[in-house]
Amino acid sequence: MASLFPSTLPPPSLDLLFAWFHQRRIHFDSRLEVRTGLVDGVDQGWGVWAREEIEEEDMVCRIPKTSIFTHRTSTLRDTSTICPPALTPPTYLLTLHLLHEIFLGESSPWFGYLQSLPRKKIPLAMFWQDHEGEDGRKAWDIVKGGELEWRVREDERGLGGNLEGSEWGGGGMKALNMFFDKFILPSMAASPHLRNIKPFPAPPTFDTFLHAYSLVSSRAFHVDDYHHVGLVTPADLFNHSPLNNVHFQADEFVCEKCGSLLPCIHDGPKSSCFPVRLEHLQDLEESDLLSLFGEEDSTDIVANEHLSPGEEIFNSYGPNLSSFRLACEYGFIPSDAMSLPQDKIHLPLSLLSLPPLPSPPSSSPSLSTSTSHYEHAFIEPLSTPDSFNARLNPYHTLQEDLYVSPDAHLSRALFERIAKKVFGEDQDGERKGWEALLRAAGGGKVGSEGGEKREGWEEWERLSEEVVRVLEGKIEGLREREGLWDLLEDEQAGPLSKMAATLILGERVTLEVCRARWTGESEWEGEGEEQDEEVEGMDQDM
């Protein structure tokens, strides 16, 4: 199998990297040190530790934006023959530039940094089935039918003939194959820079392209509206933790056409002396403005808290990253993965015994089928962050609304689809479902025999039995994998198989917590009086 890096290239060198820092005017605080991280004796790559005391809000790294590797700063930036579509995801575009730069070898001005990158492909979840050997295939068999497989497959849905996607990509292996054939191979062959390399490098293979893409996916940061995403060192030396003690910051309000932080000729009409992108600065003191505009535009790593000598320093790759997202986008999950925030667990339509839901027209965003304003402790709240924005995605489908939430609540759309199946495929069935749920609240444990059954209890039983049937169908499908706990203790098992087992076990826990609520194995999470008020409101609406 061809390698992204030449086999003759020496191992990654910190000396070369720090010499490159000095050359590019990158500040790496002397109170920091880089070490090799070990977990159970296994090399986990480099990490950053504190040598000395570091105070909260201390700036420990400063990286000029000209020293961040992006499609605006690479050797390929001025090559007009390289023209992927305007809506190409920035991660794909950055991968093209990274692959080209690595092929330049020591002639690249970025070589001091590039030689520090991992020499093995990062095992993103979408690679497991076909590109990660026997361990990857075993891991993929374990996650079949689970949320991770759903996410990988869903990413490829509806791609069609275009490469549009979010900043962080989209389209999965299908899109990567398309981009490789249509743009990577022709671009590398046409590069005037590579023609000067002796001997002329062989064309990249799909596997070397995947290696480059995995580096971008697992290491890139959002920089600003001009650079979009970039490889930012030494920011990429810090390992991830949701309890991060430093953070990455950059001035994002630059001109998207030229990258200027100062007012420039591309700025449109002004409502004041400031262009729109800088209006938030107009209340700053003049001295602060002069200081801001007088400095070189850069990105910083800043301490969130006091750091003690010998303490490992962690950054966060994003807020509330779940194990599923870490596996898909970063190719790892931490050892304490089951204590991480969980994520949505989608349920297939086959469990609901319903025909496929129609996809919305591409010209109109999909909105949830839920139109109710009712609230209940078993159902995801109306105020859930990002749910509305997610549905404005033109590639969003109604299937994506059918899930169990990270807090083990049914999504509103899933609950109402089940209610319609039980009480009738119309708005009246949806209303009856809410009415049955709200009237049943206040009876202590769901399904308990103590106490008098409230009005509408039979409707509640029909509804809850169908919810439990759907949840148990999903749980039973995940239980078919025997011996997952033993696999975690098996020293001979591969790391991807163990990752897959951890994900499936965590998924089962969330589903079982949700089921316990509906079977009466856990206490109601609301007071009956509050639910009675909802029912009275429904009665007035009817």
The helical percent reads 25-40%
Put simply, the count of helices is: 17
CATH class of the largest domain: Alpha Beta
The largest sheet has its strands arranged as: 1-4-9-8
CATH architecture of the largest domain: Alpha-Beta Complex
Average pLDDT works out at 82
Question: Tell me about the biggest sheet?
Answer: 4 strands, antiparallel
Kindly report the CATH topology of the largest domain: set domain protein methyltransferase, domain 1
Spatial separation of the terminal alpha carbons: 68 Å
Structural class: alpha+beta
- Shape, principal axes of CA atoms: globular
Quaternary structure classification = single chain
Beta-strand content estimate: 5-15%
Question: Would you count the extended β strands for me?
Answer: 12
Number of domains: 2
What does the radius of gyration come to? 27 Å
Order of helices and strands: HEEEEHHHHHHHEEEEHEEHEHEHHHHHH
